[in-house]
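Fold these two proteins, one after the other.
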Amino acid sequence: MATNRKKKRKKQSTAKVILTWVLRVVIVVVITLVILLGTIGIMLHKMVSNESTKPLLITTLMESGQLKFVAHMVASDEEIQQVVEANAMKKMEVEQNTSLIQVATSETPSDDGNTEVFDENGIRLEEISGRSFFAKMLIIKDPSQVCVGSTYPWGKYGKELNELVAGAGGVAGVNGGLYVSTGNAGGTPMGVVVQDGKITYNSPYGLAGLYVIGMNNDNILIVEDISGMSAAAFETYVAEKGIRDAVAFQDEASDSNNHFVPLIINGEPRQLGGQGSGANPRTVIGQRADGAILLLVTDGRGTSGHLGATASDLIAIMQEYGAVNAANLDGGSSSTMVYNGNWEMTSVTFYYQNSSWKLPTAFVVRPKGGN
């Protein structure tokens, strides 16, 4: 009996020690969260009180899928609407002039007369540092190597970018178009998807400001408004325009969406109000006059202390690299890049900071001579 009582007292003592440590940990976590939230609250209050930083804060928050509510905590609906309108972009209604793109058949000299250096697959990787972001750009000499990789036939779950690239037999790639990101299942695209001339997803109707972004059979980047188009009309469009690989993204600024697509069309940059957008991680596709494809991914949302890139930043970069046409793709937590089996840019989301969210589509670069 005495032995049993000793064992019982020992178990009770151990349980008390464990409970005490659990309580201590909980208290520390709570205090840390209170301090952190208080600090964030003070920072947000200072930013929203400062007329120079208020527009950037509000537009940045309104572009986030999960943090829109914070914008409504620090500003009224009327203030938010005023800021969004003041930093909006003018709609680009110009028709693309595909004759401006002449795909080069030989090495292209750079502005200083030197020949550009590409790897064995005709790809060059460059790093770009901005005032509030860090970015990497893939320059692909032969646009015929760029295609859409996907998880088709569609299921509930998507795949990480490196899996999509490998599955399409690629050596590089970036995240693609609009998709249902709820719960990070990532298996369902939105709008349209075209692969090797075949429409693998066709539901464009009802998505405001929907654009098709991709390559035609002449290896020219197409960025065109297809909003209001029916599934049947899109089938006709693909056949007539010779679309071989494409995804979709929205150009819509509202309380539910703050997306934009065209950045440069026919060499002309989009007209912006203010910065044109908030600062966030971004993914952009563009094409030079010689046909070379530009794939850009920026960081943001606190990664390395960076807020992200604005529409103004993206236009400036794409102009610097000679883009005749350029379009913004899905960004934020989805923005990622893979090159030669390595993660060059990973998701800014903490849980996926060494990989990407699950995605249904990606722009993939196949190896030179690959099918």
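Now the second one:
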Amino acid sequence: MTMGLHKFIYRTEGVEAVQPLSDSLQSVERALHVVEVLVHEARPMSVREISEQIGINRTTAHRLVATLCACGWAERAPDGRFQLSVKFLAIGHVVNHQRKFLDEIRPELVRLSQLTRETVHVGVLDRLEIVHIDKIETLERVGVSSRIGTRGAVHSTSLGMALMAAQDEDAVERYIAEATTIDPPLGLADPDRFRARIVDAHARGFTMDDEDDSIGVRCIGVAVRGPDAQPLFAISVTGPSPRFTRETALHHGPELVCSADRLSRRFGYAPVADGKSVA
């Protein structure tokens, strides 16, 4: 292949052709949109569905999908629809070794900690428990004592509630059904209160642990989503309740939401409006 300033030469089926560079870039952009849609939906899709999601005609969508299949990046599912190929598994494996997950998100966590002057935690779900996997210490002389690897009940922590609030109602009910069968502190004693707090989180945009997990400690949390809109992990701002008052926590909530939104978009999440993903 030779590349010029305005045109490039490509070969397909033994025929050399010249295509304007602008057309080529548009084709690449549209092909990447097809990939993004398949990642976001996390299921096989028909050409019609793909064309409607991207907003292009079906002929163009079919050409793009056929090109991805010919290059080995997409394939037909058993039902005849199209899905990403296993090549993307290999890419994920390589990227996972080249770039460390926590290193990638740390700059945003540091920025959030500097803004709020409180401790920022990262947590993931492990069945009925939330596990702290990273943290940024407060800039204040007095902070909240915590350790990476610490576990807590999902329903009494802002991180855990944030991860549950980011899932659908069925997932919440499955958690309730299991959590109510075990003893405290992991056991859930008041399902209705937990449901109400999930509703509050949806309305407010973030969750609040108002000294539920530990007396003297207040937290707010938000989930970070992946390409399929499912939560990957949650981040929280935590401080001693005399300093990190309810008013202060509510004040910093929108900034926490913005941080989670930036991280979600970086991990491939695209909010959906009117049936189409929006950047």
